[in-house]
Inverse folding.
């Protein structure tokens, strides 16, 4: 514990008793010293050996010089035990006596561990003592300054007479005088230098960078151009390389890769963006629900259309904005029939309207009787064929007015108006094919009247229908039927054949032989008799057939066994690819559909007017929509052979009858998108049929309150069709949305809708022409949701 | 010849619009298109094929170009290169 003479000891009680240093009895805190004889300790050591408390200090005890040992009671455990044993005499003395002599000994080097109680030393003045040298004289002596060398004295004397004169002292450098001093110069001692043989040196390379600029002068701005053409091999070279071996090898090695790639593309389109396709659908269908037909224009004419209703509408196939309507007097069926031999007071016309002139019709086609239906010829829009009430078929040629129609914007000023040549229908018409020539009479009328075009060919009465011609269609231009009934391909690419049907149970095919160009004089045709000479203004287009038009094939829809007769009202041709002066060649499929009507007289009460509806498909696939008033029968006949002869025709009928409609079928139309889906409208309901599905229509509407009077498929959307009613409403059916009710209906006029005709005038403008019973033609614009099909519709 | 037959077979695939065989210098040897279009296709595609070939070689000298297909909105142009010749087929992939 830092004190070599102090040994802490533990005194057990026994030891304390032996040595009379029991705690708190013999030895207390104040009186903590106890002198113990050395012999006693030795004695104790011997008797108790290791048990003795003095055992740890046995050696010290044995070496202790004195007689008595000091044991101090350490009450405060300063040394770690309750007693400590002082091992030296001197320490003993000091311990015993230190409290008295502590303040006298300032530089006592013996460290006594006494209590930290500070004692106040009384002041004692210093006592004079003899000076003891501690070595400081030497230091003093060293520091003092003494002359080490004796000073040199010089005595300089001068001549007496210079005494007191000024003296100048100058300095002189000792080195200037030779040999005035001796020096020891330093020199390089080779023995002490170290030669450096190898050195580590770092080197850095820095590129020298310099900035420089130049400017060029463009003295003559000049345009330069190069013309080049590609190198091409001549034919011989091509031949040669084609037959080379290398090419063969190349192709064999390469074509496999190519075919793999081609097949990959055929299998599926890897880049089809489904997400985008989905978005397009959303935008069109999630859009506005306001489906509507916007009224674009309406046309009516007071003079010619008074008390008349429009029976048929046709858009001009090539000229934008021209629409033709035919008017007839609206009569009930009985009156209609009885009217055939009356002459009409008012002339019947077909009016041409133009969008740009809503007031004045552009052109009028004269007709001897009311026209029930008419059509533009697909191959030549200047030929128009129409069917009359009295059963005749007539043709017009308006090529003279074509230009006028095209410039219909310029309202007729100074147009020569041709007078009407009333041709009485009951004039003898020769049975042959007659081309009607428009007669432009010289009777000039006021310039606001539209020009009147006379018919240039009319069919013979004997060979025409006995009843009104209810439907007329041009046959597609890529096949024609010849007299024998075989259909063959028509190379001339012009429509030359017509088919008409009429409630007199017959379907007639008419043939227009290939016409010579109108410029050519048809002099040789003149030989074919003409009863009256044509007025000079009449174009000669169909001259040779005027008044002697005869149908090529006549199909008599009489069923011999049941003695039923079919009265066709509407014809729907399957292949209605009309090419308006385009040069597409379509493979002919030879399918025609002729809707025919059935007339079972036996079940009719009134013989003449009631007609049954029969659908008959004649060999080249006709769909025949007939008129059934009482028995509601709809007959479909599919004949799968070619038309051989008219007689044989009747025998080879494969008849299917469907009775759906309550009344006359007034519309039968094939869907423009699916060739075997047909819409038929009649009476109080309509139905959609599919060819091949023979047990009924695929969709049939429920009987509605009013009568449906007209119907048409939309030209652009496969699931949309328009139905007109007798209360002036148009129902727009969207089959993709709802199939049980029209998706939209709109009121067009107060009277009954008689005809609907959609038309695509431009990709943005889709029109719907609707005619009503009052003789007004409404042209409506179909809104975009109705006209633009959604994806994959 | 075999050459004819192979070319005809390729041409008869569904959707193929045109087939062109081009020699090593970019001059068309055999084509089913009209002349001006052929020349245009041959020149452009020849250069593009050269570039593609050198690109593939630069990246990995052991590699070489086997087939090049360019898919555009309207149709797909497929080029099969070889040492001396080039076969170009334009196809309209149907969906």
């Amino acid at each position: 514990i830092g004190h070599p003479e102090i040994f802490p000891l533990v005194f057990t009680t026994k030891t304390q008793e032996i040595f009379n240093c029991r705690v708190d009895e013999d030895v207390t805190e104040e009186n903590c010293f106890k002198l113990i004889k050395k012999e006693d300790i030795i004695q104790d050591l011997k008797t108790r050996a290791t048990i003795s408390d003095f055992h740890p200090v046995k050696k010290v005890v044995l070496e202790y010089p004195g007689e008595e040992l000091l044991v101090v009671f350490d009450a405060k455990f300063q040394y770690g035990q309750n007693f400590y044993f002082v091992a030296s005499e001197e320490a003993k003395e000091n311990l015993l006596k230190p409290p008295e002599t502590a303040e006298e000994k300032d530089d006592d080097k013996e460290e006594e561990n006494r209590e930290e109680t500070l004692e106040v030393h009384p002041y004692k003045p210093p006592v004079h003592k003899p000076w003891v040298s501690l070595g400081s004289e030497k230091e003093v002596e060293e520091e003092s300054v003494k002359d080490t060398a004796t000073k040199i004295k010089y005595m300089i004397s001068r001549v007496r007479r210079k005494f007191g004169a000024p003296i100048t002292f100058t300095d002189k450098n000792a080195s200037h005088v030779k040999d005035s001093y001796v020096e020891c110069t330093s020199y390089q001692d080779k023995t002490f230098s170290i030669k450096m043989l190898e050195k580590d040196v770092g080197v850095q390379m820095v590129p020298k960078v310099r900035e420089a600029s130049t400017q060029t002068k463009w003295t003559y701005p000049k345009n330069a151009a190069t013309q080049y053409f590609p190198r091409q091999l001549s034919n011989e070279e091509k031949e040669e390389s084609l037959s080379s071996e290398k090419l063969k090898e190349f192709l064999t090695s390469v074509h496999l890769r190519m075919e793999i790639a081609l097949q990959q593309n055929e299998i599926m389109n890897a880049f089809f963006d489904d997400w985008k396709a989905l978005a397009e659908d959303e935008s069109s269908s999630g859009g506005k629900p306001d489906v509507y037909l916007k009224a674009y224009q309406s046309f009516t004419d007071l003079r010619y259309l008074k008390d008349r209703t429009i029976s048929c509408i046709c858009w001009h196939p090539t000229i934008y904005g021209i629409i033709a309507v035919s008017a007839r007097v609206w009569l009930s069926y009985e009156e209609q029939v009885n009217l055939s031999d009356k002459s009409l007071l008012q002339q019947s016309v077909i009016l041409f309207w133009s969008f740009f002139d809503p007031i004045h019709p552009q052109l009028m086609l004269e007709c001897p009787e009311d026209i029930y239906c008419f059509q533009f010829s697909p191959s030549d829009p200047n030929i128009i064929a129409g069917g009359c009430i009295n059963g005749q078929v007539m043709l017009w040629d308006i090529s003279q007015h074509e230009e006028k129609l095209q410039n219909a914007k310029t309202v007729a000023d100074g147009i020569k108006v041709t007078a009407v040549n009333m041709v009485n229908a009951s004039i003898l018409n020769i049975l042959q094919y007659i081309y009607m020539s428009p007669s432009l009479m010289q009777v000039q009328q006021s310039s606001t009247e539209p020009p009147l075009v006379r018919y240039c060919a009319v069919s013979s009465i004997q060979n025409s229908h006995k009843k009104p011609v209810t439907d007329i269609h041009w046959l597609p231009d890529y096949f024609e039927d010849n007299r024998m009934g075989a259909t063959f391909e028509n190379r001339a690419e012009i429509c030359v054949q017509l088919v008409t049907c009429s409630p007199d149970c017959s379907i007639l095919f008419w043939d227009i032989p290939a016409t010579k160009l109108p410029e050519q004089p048809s002099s040789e045709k003149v030989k074919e008799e003409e009863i009256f000479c044509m007025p000079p203004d009449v174009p000669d287009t169909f001259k040779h057939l005027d008044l002697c038009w005869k149908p090529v094939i006549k199909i008599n829809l009489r069923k011999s066994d049941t003695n039923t007769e079919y009265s066709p009202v509407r014809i729907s041709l399957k292949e209605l690819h009309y090419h308006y002066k385009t040069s597409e060649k379509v493979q002919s499929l030879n399918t025609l559909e002729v809707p025919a009507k059935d007339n079972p007289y036996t079940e009719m009460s009134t013989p003449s007017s009631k007609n049954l509806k029969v659908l008959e498909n004649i060999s080249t696939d006709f769909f025949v929509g007939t008129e059934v008033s009482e028995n509601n029968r709809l007959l479909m006949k599919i004949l799968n052979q070619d038309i051989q002869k008219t007689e044989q025709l009747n025998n080879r009928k494969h008849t299917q009858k469907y009775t759906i409609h309550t009344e006359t079928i007034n519309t039968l139309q094939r869907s423009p998108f699916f060739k075997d889906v047909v819409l038929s409208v009649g009476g109080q309901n309509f139905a959609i049929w599919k060819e091949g599905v023979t047990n009924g229509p695929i969709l049939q509407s429920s009987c509605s309150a009013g009568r449906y009077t007209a119907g048409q498929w939309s030209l652009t959307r496969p699931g949309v069709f328009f139905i007109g009613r007798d209360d002036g409403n148009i129902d727009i059916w969207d089959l993709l949305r709802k199939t049980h009710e029209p998706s939209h209906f709109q009121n067009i006029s107060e009277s009954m809708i008689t005809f609907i005709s959609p038309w695509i005038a431009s990709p943005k403008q889709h029109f719907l022409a609707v005619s009503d019973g009052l003789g007004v033609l409404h042209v409506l614009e179909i809104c975009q949701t109705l006209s633009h099909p959604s994806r994959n519709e | 010849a075999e050459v004819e037959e192979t070319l005809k077979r390729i041409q008869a695939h569904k959707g193929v619009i045109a087939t062109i065989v081009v020699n090593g210098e970019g001059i068309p040897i055999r084509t089913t298109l009209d002349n001006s279009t052929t020349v245009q296709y041959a020149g452009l595609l020849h250069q593009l094929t050269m570039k593609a070939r050198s690109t593939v070689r630069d990246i990995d000298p052991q590699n070489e170009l086997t087939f090049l297909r360019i898919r555009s909105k309207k149709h797909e142009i497929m080029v099969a290169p070889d040492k001396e010749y080039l076969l170009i087929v334009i196809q309209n992939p149907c969906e």
Chain A touches chain B at residues 230-233, 238, 241-243, 246-248, 250-255, 257-259, 261-263, 265-266, 268-269, 271-272 (CB under 8 Å). Chain A has a mean pLDDT of 62. The first strand of chain A starts at residue 6 and ends at 9. The first helix of chain A runs from residue 13 to 19.
